[in-house]
Write a structure and sequence with these properties.
With 448 residues, this protein is mainly alpha-helical. The chain has a single domain, classed as Up-down Bundle (Growth Hormone, Chain: A), CATH 1.20.1250.20. 79% of the residues lie in helices and 0% in strands. It has 21 helices and no strands. The longest helix is centred in the middle third of the chain and has 51 residues. The two termini are 13 Å apart.
């Protein structure tokens, strides 16, 4: 592993990578804003938007174990570049279809599949790279900076997209995405990311791709505290994602497709995420990081889902968006620091890929049922005179968007309760003391 004398240089490398990703995420957010408006205006339904998420997530999760092996086996910088290149490729395909007048909703499903396959490399590679570039006391701060990249770009992306879509159209927004993706790839070309040395556990895990792909699951199953931590994320993600899947249609339905209000809530969420990331970057998170995970999850659900669903005015939507996302860097930064401390760096690709599979495999189900629940159950039930309007009308109102608001309230309340109840599980609550840090285990072999 890199010596301490190289840490300042590695910090510079990390900052270069982070800036490149910040630009790329900004461009993707600009394009996504335009695509969301295009899809909703073309169909007027929530289901097509949620199905895009299904087609993105399913291939990513299905290939996760094998992607994790590739991240550990091969150059992690190349894995990062591959994911950035795939994002640019899908934007090119959508742009070509749009220019020729052939773009249809199902094309977005196809490009979502392509993006999902290759974006599967992104998170394991970046997460594992942090462990080889920085000392563990900076893991939470570095993860917070990565968490900040999305919100920081999101502050300006909705405003830029809203301002430019009238003059440039979706074509111009896609062109911005291509430019920023090229800058991110260029940034990676000029940096060196250290590869990890082989640990004893990594040496024992070597074998054919099936053996190595299954190792991540075996590693987690052998550590019940880590398994419980991921099951927590799985359950909270399931309910929280049901709400988030209909966030855009909720705002657009309740405001008569008001792009300014939609953009304002997106920007408020981004500002909240940036503020939370800045806090984590300066603070480093709670000393006992599990508190950042559990308390952060509960707060994010209560404000970002329950309060958001009850809101019927722009001011409350903006406040709920800000506060809800403010806690996301605390949750994710604390969780990442726990895992990066416990898993040897040369195994993190495999283990982190399985982590994501456990936490995310419910997302396609959430996305798949959210649209039909909104369009066929909750929205009709919350119209004036609907089956649920007299019971919940005083809580979320009635009319367009009210049913999706009720979905936010119910899903957010359940997810928050799960996070609070997790404190009653001793092995989860004490995960940091139940499992030793990877650098406290036996030293690495002298040669590999």
């Amino acid at each position: 592993m890199e010596s301490e004398n190289n840490k300042p240089q590695n910090l510079t490398v990390f900052l270069i990578i982070w800036i490149g990703q910040l630009l790329s995420i900004f461009g993707s957010a600009v394009a996504e804003f335009g695509i969301t408006l295009w899809a909703f205006e073309a169909t007027g339904k929530a289901t097509p938007l949620t199905l895009i998420g299904v087609f993105y997530t399913v291939p990513m999760l299905a290939l996760s174990p094998f992607v994790g092996v590739m991240v550990d086996r091969y150059n992690r910088k190349l894995m990062m570049m591959l994911s950035d290149f795939s994002a640019a490729l899908t934007s090119v395909l959508i742009l070509m279809l749009l220019v020729t007048g052939n773009l249809q909703i199902w094309h977005l499903y196809v490009t979502a599949v392509i993006t999902g396959i290759f974006q599967g490399f992104h998170w394991p590679a970046y997460s594992a790279a942090i462990s080889t570039m920085l000392p563990k006391q900076h893991y939470a701060r570095a993860n917070a900076m990565l968490e900040m990249a999305g919100p920081a770009s999101g502050i300006f992306a909705p405003m830029v997209a809203g301002a430019l879509i009238g003059s440039l159209g979706l074509r111009g927004l896609l062109a911005i995405d291509l430019l920023t993706a090229a800058l991110a790839i260029t940034a990676l070309l000029f940096v060196k990311i250290p590869q990890p040395k082989l640990s004893r556990e990594g040496q024992a895990a070597r074998g054919n791709i099936i053996k190595e792909a299954s190792f991540g699951l075996k590693f987690i199953l052998a550590r019940p505290s880590l398994l419980q931590l991921q099951l927590l994320f799985m359950l909270c993600n399931f309910f929280f994602s049901i709400a988030m899947s209909v966030r855009a249609p909720l705002i657009l339905a309740r405001t008569g497709n008001n792009q300014l209000i939609f953009g304002s809530t997106q920007a408020a969420a981004a500002i909240g995420g940036l503020a939370g990331g800045l806090l984590m970057g300066a603070w480093g998170g709670p000393r006992k990081r599990i508190h950042g995970v559990l308390a952060g999850w509960a707060a994010s659900c209560l404000f970002g889902a329950v309060l958001f669903g009850m809101a019927q005015t722009t001011a409350i939507w903006i406040a709920a968006s800000f506060i809800g996302v403010f806690f996301a860097p605390v949750v994710n930064g604390s969780n990442q620091a726990i895992w990066q401390s416990k898993v040897p760096p040369d195994l993190q690709g495999r283990v982190f890929a399985i982590r994501r599979l456990i936490a995310w495999f419910v997302l396609p189900l959430s996305n798949a049922i959210a649209g039909p629940l909104a369009d066929q159950v909750f929205e009709p039930a919350m119209q004036p005179g609907g089956a649920l309007s007299s019971t919940f009308g005083g809580l979320v109102g009635t009319g367009p968007g009210a049913g999706m608001g009720l979905m936010f309230v119910l899903a957010g309340a359940i997810a928050a309760l799960i996070a609070v109840l997790a404190y009653t599980v001793p092995t989860l609550r004490e995960v940091e003391s139940c499992i030793p840090d990877h650098d406290e285990l036996q030293p690495e072999p002298a040669s590999v």
